[in-house]
Specification:
The chain is of the alpha/beta class and 593 residues long. The protein contains 23 helices and 13 strands. A seven-stranded mixed beta sheet has the order 3-4-2-1-5-6-7, with helices on both faces. A six-stranded parallel beta sheet has the order 10-9-8-11-12-13, sandwiched between helices. The chain is globular, with a radius of gyration of 28 Å. The two termini are 15 Å apart.
Amino acid sequence: MRVALLTEGVRPRSPRGAGGWCDRLVDGLREHDFAWYVLAGTAGAAGATGAGGAGGTSRPDAGADAEDAARPAVHELALWGRRPAGRAPGALRGRQYAAAYDRLVRALLRPGERSGFGPGLYRLAELARADGALPAFLVSDRARRVLERAWRSPGADTSAGQPLVCDVLVAADLLEQCLRPLSAPWYGSAPGGLGAADLCHVVGGGPAALPALVAKQLHGVPFVVTEHGLHLREQYLGYREAPYRWPVRALLLAFFRALTEETYRQAAILTPGSAHDQQWQRRCGADPARTRVVYEGTPAVERPAAGPEPDAPTLVWAGALEPGRDPELALHAFARVRAELPAARLVLHGEEAVPGYRAHCAAVAERLGVADAVEFAGRPRSAAEAWADGTVVVFSALSQRRPRLLADAMLSGRAVVSTDVGVAREVVGPTGLLVPPRDPQALAGACLALLRDGERRARLGLAGRLRAQERFAVEPVTGAFREIYLELVSQWPAFPAAAPDAGAGPRPRPFARPAEYWITDRCRTEPPEAAAAPVPGDPVPGNPVTADGTGSTDDGGTADRADGAGAVVALSRGRLPAAGEAPDRAGSFAEAV
């Protein structure tokens, strides 16, 4: 089937983040045809497969090897920076834009009008598709006046402060950039358009979900949302230090909150990366019946376990040096460990995320009298190298939003001690020791218990490695999405946006290609024109099919009937076999699976 992958800020073939995850998904589901739709940082950013530019399409260079040459095309839109060129709307169309924009803005500012966010958003998308004047309108004086009038009208939420003129100018510019995907040249049923896809897969949420929302509204294409770390939660954390006044921050957070709620409401299936994220999604209105936890697979499961333990009892800590990771807790706990085990050492791996924080931690170690046994090792060449330096791995964070670092430590085979926050209990489970946050005595006690008991360390390390291998292998992830894709396509109506039009040729037949068709070898080898051609013996569109499975055909014969094993074979070909017809072994569904 044709799958559109929608991501923000990450190009394919990226060595880390969503790009690497998408690459693993595409490589594991080679029976499907993927295309990337990327909301890039700035216009003209070069990527691994060429520079597509704003709204452009890039493909591998001619000199690339065979594997890269076979990779999907990348459709790219610059989300930030200078807006796309375009003419301003006329007077009548300008009033239509203003009415839709006013409805969307009021949904952000008035609690009683939040239901207008979706209609306002889709109306702007329809207008943008008709004339392409949305970017020019959003930066016009008319749009700023609409925003200012709604922002300063009675009943608007101004708890973050009254907006100034500069706030209106900044917020209008930021909203234009957030709404830029509505005017992307990706819509329609032509090749390369989202209307020609069987489903969309949004990776990361946020603005990347806007094209999927529009494709569903205009073409009826279902979409899946995968979030490894919730986009809305990251926005709330990031805007605490954003260089904007509080009224602007409140307006933008209201936009992301409304966009998240609309995305969760319209998505066919949500696949959070942990049960912890699933609880957050439910608080934002996600339907539990349409939510399935799919852990973020990692190729590190194939990595061998760490080698022998170091000679001296060593605690290893890894993460960004920032207050949220709370390395100070690890230092205070280590001071208690050192009092019991004078030969113990503490190695902290990680880069400084807050200016001056490394020096602050060094001063804490000096004050506690353990500076000579504490090593600030900086960023390791690899995570495996960091875990190999220690006897026990320690996590002291105040919040643990993503399971990837915990799982990587468990894959090393070292015993893990972690604060009981975020996803820690879900990931570590009974294979490690969990302690309350901000409790150095409890953390020191857990570390001492493992440092003094080698047999227990080995038992918990092996159990943790097996648990991480089972939950975070790549194959279960691709298998889960294989089932999700087939389930959606089999339940969603085929050609939902098709309407009878005498001048547009014959109307497409619903379910002419069932879900099973797309996982056979035939769909990978036959040319597009062969796939579109009717199979001999298929009923002609418009001819009735009787209750017993027979009907008139184009040559006056009877339509095929499904009975016995031949029905399975015919499903893989998009038709039902005639009575008594033997299945074709080369095209059987059983062999394709």
